[in-house]
Design a protein that fits this description.
By secondary structure, this protein is α+β, with helices and mostly antiparallel strands. It folds into 2 domains: 17-274, L-amino peptidase D-ALA esterase/amidase; 282-402, ArgJ beta chain, C-terminal domain (Ubiquitin-like (UB roll), Roll). Helices cover 31% and strands 25% of the residues. The protein contains 12 helices and 15 strands. Strands 13-12-11-14-10-15 form a 6-stranded mixed sheet. A 5-stranded mixed sheet has the order 3-9-8-7-6, sandwiched between helices. A 4-stranded mixed sheet has the order 1-2-4-5, sandwiched between helices. Strand 6 (159-167) and strand 7 (170-179) form a beta hairpin. Helix 1 packs across helix 2 (86-104) and helix 8 crosses helix 10 (321-328). The longest helix is centred in the middle third of the chain and has 21 residues, at 254-274. The chain is globular.
């Protein structure tokens, strides 16, 4: 069961975006598993992708097409990752793009393909391409929820976020969906994210916005420490709501837009953690007092990915020595452990490198029983801070992944 607030909001229409879905039987019958986005001509598109060297065929093609073409369509399938599939996998990706291009009367390089699911199996290309026309036949501005369902794999909930806001008397929208529940450790995660706005934004600035907001959202989450082969996050700006294009960070509208976009991105990223495979707890790991952001992240990820910490939290056992252990192996040079402070919620566990005199086992256990838990660490060696989001590690995580291909 997903943890905490998992509400799907009213998904606002983004002018210039239409979406269609279909049941293509990519892996399982009788489920929506193919999604097509149609973008208005002239839209700007930015993307970030997995850092895994074994990146999937669709990632390779999307990165190439994004560099050279004006993107008009996205095509996403679930059930099959088309990763570890060699030249045949690339041919199948190109065949998907070419078939969609023929039907939609665009160039195949104007299409970004995405896949998620089982690694190492070839796409059932005939079934997949047969689903393209049915998806295109029902393109709609109001299909965001259908799309959120259509990109799910082991997810138990569809994930969406949407806001409207006004700049220069013009109403704009940002709406997005994500998927992911396991094999999550950015940069980035077995995740897909598709976010769109109808504000006009120049492509280079859109890329900057995506990178900066992803670094505070999708690149600050972990379920199990595994970086996937298929991670992709796409930010689209159709410009169809009108107004002057946003081109510079010095534009007075920039920070206002970025604030809303950051909220959307964080919400979509945190929903992945709330729906982590087998999760029963949502955990925030905040590290402050670092010499720089990187070492704060190193410590935060060391704690967030420790199987011993995560299983202790699942068991509601305040075995806080496991947190100290994870801090100690986080590869921080010249770390003075005698300056380290650690809190579990509002209960101080560790003071100056040892047990806090005020700590009691009962107080720690009370925090552990909460569904949402914050671990806070002060390194006392600088002014930097950062935050990573994770979940506990339960019996169900093992069961889900043991049965993944069945």
């Amino acid at each position: 069961m997903a943890v905490g607030d998992i509400t799907m909001p009213q998904m606002q229409v983004v002018k210039g975006i239409k979406i269609g879905t279909a049941e293509a039987y990519v892996r399982y019958p009788n489920r929506r598993d193919l999604v097509v986005f149609e973008l208005a001509e002239g839209s700007s598109v930015a993307g970030i992708f997995t850092q895994n060297a074994f990146c999937a065929a669709p990632v390779q093609v999307s990165k190439l097409n994004l560099k050279h073409s004006s993107i008009r369509y996205l095509v996403i399938n679930t059930g099959n990752a088309n990763a570890g599939t060699g030249q045949q996998g690339l041919q199948n990706t190109y065949a998907t793009c070419e078939e969609l291009a023929t039907i939609a009367n665009v160039d195949s390089t104007q299409i970004l393909p995405f896949s998620t699911g089982v690694i190492g199996e070839q796409l059932p290309i005939e079934r997949l391409t047969a689903g393209l026309t049915p998806a295109l036949n029902i393109l709609s501005e109001n299909a965001w929820v259908d799309a959120a369902h259509g990109i799910m794999t082991t997810d138990t909930i569809p994930k969406g976020a949407s806001e409207t806001f006004v700049l220069d008397d013009i109403k704009y929208t940002i709406t997005g969906i994500s998927k992911g529940a396991g094999m999550i450790r950015p940069n980035m995660a077995t995740m897909l994210g598709f976010v769109a706005t109808d504000m006009p934004i120049e492509q280079s600035l859109l890329q900057t916005l995506l990178k900066e907001t992803a670094d505070q959202s999708f690149n600050r989450i972990t379920v199990d420490g595994d970086t996937s082969t298929n991670d992709s996050c796409i930010l689209m700006a159709t410009g169809q709501a009108g107004g002057l294009p946003l081109k510079e960070t010095t534009d007075v509208r920039y920070n206002a837009f970025k604030t809303v976009l950051t909220r959307i991105m964080k919400r979509l990223a945190q929903l992945i953690i709330r729906d982590g495979e087998g999760a029963t707890k949502f955990i925030t790991v905040h590290v402050e007092g670092g010499a720089n952001t990187q070492e704060c992240c190193n410590v935060a990820y060391s704690i967030a990915q420790s199987p011993l910490v995560k299983t202790a939290i699942f068991a509601e056992d305040p075995n806080w020595g496991r947190i100290l252990c994870a801090i100690g192996y986080s590869d921080i040079q010249n770390l003075d452990v005698n300056k380290i402070q650690v809190w579990l919620g509002d209960v101080q566990l560790c003071k100056d490198g040892g047990a806090a005199s005020t700590y009691t086992e009962e107080a720690g256990a009370a925090v552990m029983q909460q569904k949402e838990i914050t671990i806070r660490v002060d390194l006392n060696r600088g002014e930097a801070s950062d935050t990573v989001y994770t979940c506990d590690l339960s019996y169900d995580y093992v069961k889900i992944n043991a049965d993944y291909r069945s």
